[in-house]
Each structure stands twice: as C-alpha cells, then as structure tokens.
Amino acid sequence: MTVRKAWLVAGAVLGAGLSFVMLLVVGVYVVAGNLANGVGGATRALAKGAVPAAYQPLVQKWGNLCPAINPALLAAQLYQESGFNPKAQSAAAAQGIAQFIPGTWATHGVDGDGDGDKDVWDPNDAIPSAASYDCSLASYVKDVPGNITENMLASYNAGAYAVIKYGGVPPYKETQNYVKTITTLEESFAAPTRRVDPSQQAAGAIYYAQKKLGTPYLWGGTGTAEQGGRFDCSGLTQASYESVGITLPRVANDQYNAGPHPARSELLPGDLVFFSKDLGNSRAIHHVGIYVGGGYMIDAPRTGAVIRFDPIDTSEYFGATRVTEDGAKALPTTV
C-alpha cells in the first residue's frame, strides 16, 4: 500500500477529533518527499548510543581495520551474535561478545589490549579478534569478483572455499540470508548520511495506535483478549506495526534496531521515539512511543495511566528509528 493510499483509507474512518493529527502527518510527508534525495556519503559513523558506551571506542577503532569492514558493520555482527553480551554462550559452545567457537578462537583470537592474554570473554580481546577475523576472511577472497564486504560475510558463514568456488556469494539460502541480515543491520548502527526515506507503513501504524487512545496501561500487555486489550509501551508499538505487516521485537531496546535513525529535526510521523536514563547506550532504553508530529507521540506511559499523546522533548529523549520491513526482519529473535 502506498503512503497516499494509506492516508486515504485512514482518513475515511478517522473521527473528527483526530483529524488534525492526520493533516499534520500528510503535510510532513509532502515535505519529506521533497527532501528524501539528500546528499549521501560513504562514511559509516556509528549512530548515537547504538553501541554501548563501554564498547564504542573498540568498535570505532577496530571497525576501520581493513576496507572490507566499518564500525557499523562490526557493531551489527556483535549485536547479531550476542546482543553485546560479553558473557553470552550458545548451545554450540560459541563464547563471548563475538561468539567464537574454541577452535576458531585458538586460530584467530588476538591479544587486543596487549596484556599478554587472549581472553574470549574479554571484549577488549574479542572485539579486536572479530575485526581481525573479518579482515583475514576478506584477504582470502580478495580476488573474487563482486562486493568485498559481501564476499567476506559469505566466507564467515559458508567458508572462503565456497565463495572462491562460486565466484562470489554462494547459492546457499542460509548464506545469502546472513549477508542480507548483516548488511541490513548495518543501517541500524550507522549514522545516516542522507535523509531517510519515509516508511510506507507509518500511516497505518499511527491509525492503529490512535484507535487505542484512552486504553489503560498494562505492564507486559500486548493487547490480547485475556489482557483486556491493554498494552505497555513496546506492546503498543509492536501491535501497531504488526497491523501493517511488520513484526517488531517485543522489547523497546531491540525495536531501536529496526531501521535507520533520523535526527530530531528530521522526524516524521510513524517514527518510533525512544527514551533512556543512559543516553549513551541503546540497550538501556526503557520507553518507546510512535511519533505523530508537532513534537508529540502516542504512547502507553506507565501503570495507572492510559494510552495518550505525550511530548517527546524530555531529558530522557534518546533518539528515533524509522522502521523498515527489512530492518525488522533482520533483527535476531533472541539477543
């Protein structure tokens, strides 16, 4: 459904009391359409707070180790592997923030902090090792035609031999999905270098949320019949985008990674807006709402309150995400 069609459908059924919001939204989208082709660039700086502050210098430094990687891509890999959890351990014995299996660590682990010890559980070693491993893979396939980063990611998943054999990303669905997942997540960790395109589904998500105005808040609420159709903050945003065919994670700090991050001055209705007591760490986000324009959002604020319009400009305003279908699909189911 195009943005224009979405607004026509929504406008036909909205009550007069909410029509001012929709008129505002339409106006903002008209302006956005004229700005969407802004100046681009190749820089892949990290988005504000997307990487926990404790790891950001490491990701920034080691993400520039070779031309095949960049800080946002390295951040996407770490998030996909462990959700930045240095104590993560999988059933397959993958360990640490970068999820190295013991055999790979023995070969490719590096002493990133120069303390004389290669510790898979220490991000000061594991993050440099992840970057070093990526660059080693890139060197193995440097003569293969195609995109060097995609070939490196394919080597990470299927092995360098398969990439060399097929002259690029091999025709394995799992490998092709892995390459797309990481390159899509990269956009969620990179500071945009141009204005982000409007979401076609935003109008429908706002319309859904507007219909829930006045509904009492419920901690853990996802709007089920057993819960009386009540929501908490991320339950409301999840259901709003589910209504237009986009599946978001359950919790707010993972929803932050469902697309690129427009600046405050570039917000459009339908963007998710996030709040945190730690403005340097997206993993500390504790609240989310749906922006509707004019500095306001629809949100489910807290126990004892109802779903309502609230201003977004508070001391805890963290940032925003323009949800995309590919961005939502790329998010890991568990981190």
Explain what this protein looks like in three dimensions.
With 335 residues, this protein is α+β, with helices and mostly antiparallel strands. Helix content is 41%, strand content 8%. It has a five-stranded antiparallel sheet. Helix 7 (148-158) packs across helix 9. The longest helix is centred in the middle third of the chain and has 18 residues, at 123-140. The chain is elongated, with a radius of gyration of 21 Å. Residues 1-43 have low confidence and may be disordered.
Walk across the major sheet and give the strand order.
4-3-2-1-5
Would you identify the regions where 5 or more consecutive residues have pLDDT less than 50? 1-43
SS class: alpha+beta
Q: Output the helix-strand order.
A: HHHHHHHHHHHHEEEEEH
Helix content: 40-55%
Number of helices: 13
User: How much strand content do the residues show?
Assistant: 5-15%
Report the principal-axis shape: elongated
Mean pLDDT: 88
Beta strands, count:
5
Give structural attributes:
single chain; 335 residues; alpha+beta; five-stranded antiparallel β-sheet; 13 helices; 5 strands; elongated; disordered N terminus
Brief overview:
By secondary structure, the chain is α+β, with helices and mostly antiparallel strands. It has helices spanning 3-13, 19-35, 56-62, 71-82, 102-108, 123-140, 148-158, 160-166, 173-189, 202-211, 233-242, 252-255, 325-330, and strands spanning 272-276, 285-293, 296-299, 308-311, 317-321. The radius of gyration is 21 Å and the shape is elongated.
